[in-house]
Specification:
single chain, 457 residues, alpha/beta, 5-stranded mixed β-barrel, 33% helix, 22% strand, globular
Length: 457
């Protein structure tokens, strides 16, 4: 019987995709997956270092896994991802239970690195960056019943936002060849995948490293020709690189879902400048206006950091003003977390923790109202829902996602998994909607792009 591995993922969708890739590579080397770490011969933690809270979760979990190692001395515990890239060999001092530390660009060497640990019975550290031009992907096959999949189209980042450690840990931007991406999508389509999310640290700048130069909006139009793929999404977008051609894609490419995650980070020009974001508040508002002109009803979500060094009460009010003007469908908001090695870590005028907490609470309460308003506006509408699985909170119900990326729960069985259905929204909550199956798939309403939030029933 083959050796078993267990992977725990911390952080964003890109880390989820990297973990899937790790699993595919390990299975190619003869390992089998397990959902129970106590049964594993190899435990991998795939980490994120964007915020201190994520790092603390990793340290806590390593403490728990060290107990398993005491019970099973042959257990190999490894750590990968951004935190591993950042700390390197120093991680062995922080967590003596570790056998393997590997960097963000050493995923494909994972079986070889595990083999070194098994042979030498001492810790192995490898955080080297690969040579330019080696951007590729190992394709993990979808799990049974899986409806959506992530596809990495580029790696690395060249933006160097002053608060962000990612460019130092993920390396420079590098795009995959379109033919490679399209081949992966074709396999996913044959495996029953209906919805694909394209991933990159900044997908809007896709193609800059390719020769000849390619553009993200052209890639989207090529991908849209893939048969059996019904929906396309992408993340994460940088506002400064959101082109008019990409904005028009929401109106012109039928498979493009009417949702964009467009991180703004702050509504203050002074703070945006200190963050090295490359745009002003008015620029961001103009981009949102253009998106809504091109695709009325588009769902816009964002990220905001409060308490960046030097952020005054007036700066925070500028952020609140931007929120009132945009009225995001949802928002991921955080207190500024200083990351060693970034430009922002050297800035003075630190904002106190109490002030950061108060600002975050105020901002989140405002966003809760905006989110609920957006959701309540859908009551009585008929929306298109792709069924993803069993509802988490209601027995006898299934759940799916609208094209605008809202969760809908409604009565139905698993025979509807992967079906795209028309659902009438009956009630709205903070984090989800409840609906009722409206029409059979063959009689589905035409949710036109100019009616992105649905049609009256």
């Amino acid at each position: 019987m083959g050796k078993k591995y267990f992977i725990q993922t911390f952080g964003c969708q890109m880390n989820v995709r990297d973990s899937d890739e790790m699993g595919a590579i390990l299975e190619g080397a003869g390992f089998k997956s397990t959902d129970h770490p106590q049964n594993a011969d190899l435990i991998i933690l795939n980490t994120c270092s964007i915020r201190e809270k994520a790092a603390q979760k990793v340290y806590s979990q390593l403490g728990r896994f060290s107990g398993l190692k005491r019970q099973n001395p042959g257990l190999i515990i490894g750590i990968g991802g951004c935190l591993a890239q950042q700390w390197g060999e120093n991680f062995l001092k922080k967590a003596p239970c570790l056998d393997l530390v590997f960097g963000t660009q050493r995923i494909r060497q994972l079986p070889e690195l595990v083999g070194k640990v098994e042979k030498c019975r001492r810790p192995v550290v490898d955080t080297a960056f690969q040579d330019a031009g080696a951007c590729g992907s190992v394709q993990p096959l979808p799990k049974k019943g899986q409806v959506g999949a992530y596809v990495t189209i580029m790696r690395g980042c060249d933006n160097f936002c002053s608060y962000c450690i990612v460019p130092y840990l993920r390396g420079s931007e590098e795009s995959r060849e379109p033919a490679d991406i399209l081949a992966e999508l074709a396999v996913l389509a044959e495996q029953g995948i209906k919805e694909v999310t394209l991933l990159g640290q900044n997908v809007n700048s896709y193609g800059k490293t390719l020769r000849p130069r390619r553009h993200f909006h052209d890639l989207i139009r090529e991908i849209a020709l893939t048969e059996k793929i019904e929906r396309l999404r992408f993340t994460t977008s940088h506002p400064k690189d959101l082109s008019p051609e990409l904005i028009r894609s929401f109106a012109e490419v039928n498979k493009m879902c009417e949702h964009i995650h467009l991180p703004v980070q702050s509504g203050s020009d002074k703070v945006l400048r200190a963050m090295n974001r490359g745009y002003k508040k008015v620029d961001y508002l103009k981009k949102v206006e253009q998106l809504r002109e091109s695709c009325p009803g588009i769902s816009v979500t964002s990220d905001i950091i409060v308490g960046f060094p030097g952020e005054s009460d007036a700066d925070f009010e500028e952020t609140i003003d931007l929120m009132e003007k945009v009225r995001f469908d949802n928002l991921f908001s955080f207190k500024y977390s200083e990351r060693p090695g970034t430009t922002a870590a050297k800035l003075e005028q630190k904002v106190g923790e109490r002030v950061k907490s108060d600002r975050l609470k105020f901002l989140q309460l405002l966003q809760e109202r905006h989110t609920l308003e957006k959701n309540q506006a859908l009551v009585g509408k008929v929306v298109e829902v792709l069924v993803e699985g069993i509802s988490r909170n209601s027995t006898g119900e299934i759940m799916g996602r609208t094209r605008t990326n809202k969760i809908v729960n409604f009565k139905g069985g698993m025979e509807l998994l992967g079906e795209t259905l028309s659902v009438t929204i009956k009630s709205a909550y903070q984090h989800s909607l409840r609906g009722e199956l409206s029409l059979n798939k063959g009689e589905n309403i035409d949710v036109h792009r100019s009616q992105g939030i649905g049609t009256d029933h």
